[in-house]
Amino acid sequence: MLQDTKLLELWEFLLCAWWKRTASGRIFVAVEQEKLVKALWAVCRILPESLWQQLSFSTYEKDAMLSPAIIVGLWDPIQPEESIPQTCFNGTNLAWNTFSGKKSTIQGIPRYIQYIIQAVKNGKITEIDSFHSGTPSVTWHRRASAETFFELVRHPDTMDITRLKDISDLPKIGRFAIKNEKRFRLLLENFFTSPLLDMWDENTIQLVYTPFFASDGEVLQKFHEQLIQIQKDRISACDVDFLKMFEQKWLPRLKNFEFSEMDLWPLFNDSPASLPKPIYQWIYPTAFRHVLHCHEPSEQIEFLTRWCFLDVDEVNEPQITGILQSNFADIVKLTMYSKFVERDMAGNDAQFSRFYFAWPEWNVQVLLKLAPETRNRFLDYLIPTAGPTLLSAIQTQLTQNGKNPEMLHKNADLFRIYCDILASPNQIPITKSVADFARRLPQDEVLAIREALQKREDLVLLNQKKELNCIFSDNSPSCFWSRLLFWKKS
Predict the structure, then answer these.
(1) What is the pTM of this model?
(2) I need a surface site. Which of 3, 321, 357, 453 has the fewest CB within 10 A?
(3) Rounded to whole angstroms, how far apart are CA atoms 353 and 340?
């Protein structure tokens, strides 16, 4: 047949026509009848028996309507080009008059039939036989299951995924699917990106796909492993769109397959710093929800330390804002704010965050935790813009600490920082609030404030301010009586 081009062409037409024929359709062919018989034999030879058992044919017919056969061979030896009447080309019928050249167009040939045609033309008939014999015979009982099974085996990445229902009843189809790891992987990739599944509810998905992915423990385990590997690859490829779609569309449905968000969480949580930046920015809100389930402050700090401040200011600032506005314990907030400052101050550029100007109370707290070098750099940045606000916040904190005996050691450290700020070369304006604060202090601390102010270049001007007499004049009555009142209350 391969040497006879016309016979091969006739066989291809009969194969496609037989496959695409509808239940009521018939096939009419005008050709040398010996060739018709040979071509029909070749059709039956190449297909599994169950796919041609219903085939019936007749030959040497002169009247197409007199034969009940599905495939009718027509022959008019006098006028062969008139062998097939026009009615045979109408409706669901398919016809070809090889003498006149008139031929029905057959559309939508499935890839299974295309594969058979190409393999025969290439002389690979044994390959086709091997494909058919290596598959449960029940696969070939229906054209739909034959097409879908071929798609599953040869084109799992592009097949119409909704057609898996055509073969979901095949015995041990799940074990067959996992036998070839690459094929199973491509099937899952296709499965989770197919928009056609949007029309199916959870019950339908479970009914159709359980045989493939959860028919037994081994299949389910392979399903889970491949899901995780797919996620790993999508993370590496920085495919945020797929990850979003998977989380929103599939995770709720996968509960039927004993799979949840927690099975995927280690892929992100094991090493947040190594995640691609778009993946990190997308998954961070989920991570923040996870940390809320940690009960101990130490656990929260450990978790947040791994996840926070791995990006630029535009990303880091909302993170620390969320922490400070949360219900975390103050120790957690202060620790993370310190880490935020340290990371920012350790940068190579001078473009520090302007975030600090909105949080003077936390700035006071963090001053006690920073290393001296980092603290000095932090103050150099803060003082020119927010010096008076910072001084006021420190004064408030010192006043509150003074009422708590347990805070006296922190009070001393913070007071030293306060005096350093007063003496800063940045020349913070010294206002009446400093004098008001000094009136509430013991004499030695007032002297410390005086010594700090005496280091400033504007000392002469400060001495001329009447509101600062309490600081610069030991004989000031207001200073004397305020100190007397302070010691009496103490």
Answers:
(1) 0.73
(2) 3
(3) 10
